[in-house]
Design brief:
Strand order of the largest sheet: 1-2-3-4-5-6-9
Shape: globular
Helix content: 25-40%
Number of strands: 10
Oligomer: single chain
Order of helices and strands: EHEHEHEHHEHEHEEEHE
Radius of gyration: 17 Å
Strand content: 15-25%
Distance between the termini: 16 Å
Length: 251
């Protein structure tokens, strides 16, 4: 069995760092790098790209609402056309930084509130897929498992890969429990690891409140901005390896 481990990185701005990117990059196989919308700037982008390259980690663009104050975790009222342009410009920004760094961008993963909205709203999902395809048909889309964004990617003729979250609780419909609800965040690294092993063995993700939902998984996300991110990533990597699961980038 083989799976990818990814994290959202490069989310600092200027002199303000967010998380321990260097330590996380020692654990993951793919890095979703902020594109200047919810976080990051040109210097941060290039530095993170070079660090990922040095660690042998594949990189993708991580566009989100242009809302640094809310860290891209608030829905900003926008038309589908505006979302398409916003996402295209952010992907293009990271591709420009990657050209300077000599790094290849392999995929796109939407961030925060934008990703959650695209999970349920097909129009928004299609806008993200169109923006991605406009930049390059070779870019893959990394989408929350079992959501509209997966369907939109396939309809757009893009390679689509499914991700699950190590540190987030799930609802019965397969979508994430909103962060402002009790139990939404999982901070126990051992519990998170056991939950993921159960998913890989059975295809079932435990649901908050009891029960399971069927999900497919080609990548596991650990959020890089949380205080427990490094310990979580290390625990999951070790737990998967001990269970005989190989870690490798999905692209």
């Amino acid at each position: 069995m083989q799976i990818d481990l990814n994290s959202d990185l490069g989310e600092g701005f200027g002199p303000w760092a967010m998380g321990d990117d260097a330590a996380i990059l020692g654990c993951v196989t793919s890095a979703n790098i902020a594109c200047g919308g919810h976080a990051s700037d040109p210097d941060t982008m290039v530095a993170t790209l070079l660090l990922a390259q040095a660690k042998g980690v594949r990189v993708g663009a991580h566009p989100g609402y242009a809302d640094p104050l809310g860290f891209g975790r608030r829905v900003i009222p926008m038309s589908e056309a505006q979302i398409e342009r916003m996402v295209a410009v952010q992907i293009g920004a990271l591709m420009g930084a990657a050209a300077v760094a000599g790094v290849q961008i392999a995929y796109v993963k939407a961030h925060g509130a934008l990703a959650n909205l695209a999970a349920a709203n097909r129009g928004v999902a299609d806008a993200i897929a169109r923006a991605t395809r406009a930049l390059s048909r070779d870019l893959a889309l990394l989408a929350i498992s079992g959501t509209e964004l997966e369907a939109a990617a396939e309809a757009a003729g893009l390679a689509s890969f499914s991700e699950v979250f190590a540190d987030r609780a799930y609802q019965a419909n397969g979508q994430l429990v909103p962060r402002d609800q009790p139990g939404a965040m999982i901070t126990d690294a051992d519990a998170a690891t056991q939950r993921l092993l159960h998913l890989l063995e059975t295809g079932e993700m435990p649901v908050l409140g009891g029960g399971h939902v069927k999900l497919r998984a080609q990548s596991i996300c650990v959020h890089g901005d949380s205080p427990h991110a490094v310990a979580m990533a290390q625990s999951i990597r070790q737990g998967l390896a001990a269970a005989g699961v190989k870690l490798a980038a999905f692209v």
